[in-house]
């Protein structure tokens, strides 16, 4: 028997926004192809927020879509949508639920009361994100603990995240990473639309949030005498002050090209695959899909120096922590294009270790184990361990 699977807590599919959405689309469509009934809960776009029925079912790549509204406030958007999703799930049950983002932990007791086995994808260390104030950080700490206590299984997408939950809570996780797309056959014809040429620019693609260090990358580049321009792709719906900080730095240097959000996937893939270097500033998440897309394009990558990024890039990557190091890494790459190309080739090989079919195998095994009630189960008394216990 193939268990039916509900995927809850993301913006849904088609994937147009972030890592969770990419994972849901890639995993969900493969599970559907394997014969599972897959239901994905999707957020209604803001321009449809006042329209008609609260439920708008559809099918996308074999996945059932249930489209529901969400509160348009950063602190409430995710949880409000998940609450409606869980309410729908109680009326139209499924064999197992996969909940993405530990922020949704307050809804786990409802699923437990309904006896729907649930795995929580805990994401990165959300409480470390600078965008949250003291209240937000306390909430995410509490939600992290609740996820451990109330989930039948935890999903970690990087070894560093799995290590954290083991050390902090004594909790085991299913280590299931993301996949990397193969962009080796990607063309370059669309670059002309932006006045760019293959190998003629450095690239940043990121949501504008402090822990993604876009400001540090831009400042480091502006302080360098680099020949190639810096192309910055990204935006932030709730971080206007941080966005303005980046723009002030970029406005000082005509070499910096701010493109905003690029939602055309073909164009975005060409930007990744044809960049001279890709600069990756993410620091608190696990395995990042943007990073995997860059190495899937065989692009030499300069990354913020944290274990999650080193886990992916290993010795083929180069790393930074300061604006001075950003400038140095860019100049070193421009001074030795041959070495830069060799690093890109090594990273393209590394990308083959991140295979969506293998990732889907892991989720399928997890779904079957959840349905069979053979996962670790909730840990009702789990809490953060003392330093002595961690040792």
Describe this structure in words.
The protein is an alpha/beta fold. 40% of the residues lie in helices and 15% in strands. The protein contains 14 helices and 14 strands. The strands form two sheets. It has an eight-stranded mixed β-sheet with strand order 3-4-2-1-5-6-7-8, with helices on both faces. Helix 1 packs across helix 13.
Write the layout of secondary structure elements.
Elements: E1 5-8, H1 19-33, E2 38-43, E3 58-60, E4 63-68, H2 77-91, E5 96-100, H3 108-113, E6 118-121, H4 134-150, E7 153-156, H5 159-169, E8 174-175, E9 202-205, H6 214-222, E10 230-233, H7 240-251, E11 256-260, H8 265-274, E12 277-280, H9 289-296, E13 301-304, H10 307-313, E14 318-320, H11 323-335, H12 337-351, H13 356-371, H14 387-390
Parallel strand pairs: 1-2, 1-5, 2-4, 5-6, 6-7, 7-8, 9-10, 9-12, 10-11, 12-13, 13-14
Antiparallel strand pairs: 3-4
Helix pairs in contact: 1-13, 6-7, 6-11
Short characterization:
This protein has 391 residues and is of the alpha/beta class. The protein contains 14 helices and 14 strands.
Query: Could you state the order of secondary-structure elements as H and E?
Result: EHEEEHEHEHEHEEHEHEHEHEHEHHHH
Radius of gyration: 21 Å
The major β-sheet equals: 8 strands, mixed
Range of strand content: 5-15%
From the spread of the alpha carbons, the general shape counts as: globular
Number of continuous helical runs: 14
Query: Numbering strands along the chain, what is their spatial order in the largest sheet?
Result: 3-4-2-1-5-6-7-8
The end-to-end distance, rounded to whole angstroms, is: 43 Å
The secondary structure category is alpha/beta
Helical residue percent?
40-55%
